Amino acid sequence: MTFVQLIECRTSRPDEMNRLMDDWVARARGRRTATHTLVGRDRSDAAHLVEVVEFPSYEDAMRGSGRPESDRVFREMAALCDEAPVLMDLDVVRAERPAEDTVRRFFTTLAASGELPPLNDLLAEDVHSHDPVNPQDTIGLDNARAEYRMWRAAFDCAFTVEDVLVQDDRVCARWTWRATHRGDFLGIPATGRDVTMTGTTLFRLAPDGKIAETWWQHDQLGLMQQLGALDELEN
Questions:
Q1: Residue 49: CA atoms inside 13 Å, Cβ hemisphere, count?
Q2: Are 156 and 49 members of one domain?
Q3: Is the residue at 133 inside a domain?
């Protein structure tokens, strides 16, 4: 279960606090167990700061806090506070991650059976797709849908999203695609073969949360080999 620590404090020395945190991050590089840290300042009271530190679990948090350097930096931080900092330990019982949810729903929708939905709830009207195997970028919702329909007409497929990383308006997903070749694909008639392809897609999300741009990297050469398209070249 995800675990969060809230550290609330008042300080008249915010610059020194920032330098301490920068130094701590540099010293603890590669050993930190936290996955995300956020510091907020009270708009009505500039001396009032709240730090939110997220961990994969309570056990991970305790493993990190048990290190000597963690205890030292907390004591140094407390010394910069005007009063004793207040700590809260929270088990996360509900978390919404809109950017990650959008990307996961995108992959689920691409592989869903039946008619391809309009996708206008997921993609911006002027969505821009970069794919190194295409001679030109795909621009616009209609063109993106046409490209997805081409893949769907050739394969019955499913995506497994292995990892998702989110930073600001960028989301990176590592995925595995498993499919059965049911129709013509780039001139290759249906083979009935089961195929697998791995790849990574970087997404840029617009301010309204829709996907505005994508960068695809996938093993299409490996896919063509599985379909037998390279057999003559290998003989």
A1: 22
A2: no
A3: yes
Instruction: Tell whether the torsion through CA atoms of 50, 56, 59 and 62 is positive or negative.
Output: negative
d(Cα 192, Cα 46) in Å, to the nearest integer?
65
Tell me the chain's radius of gyration from C-alpha atoms.
24
Phi first, then psi: give them for residue 69, nearest 5 degrees. Answer: -65, -30
Query: What is the overall mean pLDDT for the chain?
Result: 91
Same domain, 114 and 33: no
* Three state DSSP letters for 43-78: CCEEEEEEEEEEECCHHHHHHHHCCHHHHHHHHHHH
Q: Is the pLDDT of residue 6 over 70?
A: yes
- Do 159 and 134 lie in one domain? The reply is yes
The answer, yes or no, to whether residue 35 has pLDDT greater than 60, is yes
What's the token pair of residue 43?
Answer: 């708009």
pLDDT score of 79: 92
Structural domain of residue 113, as residue ranges? 98-227
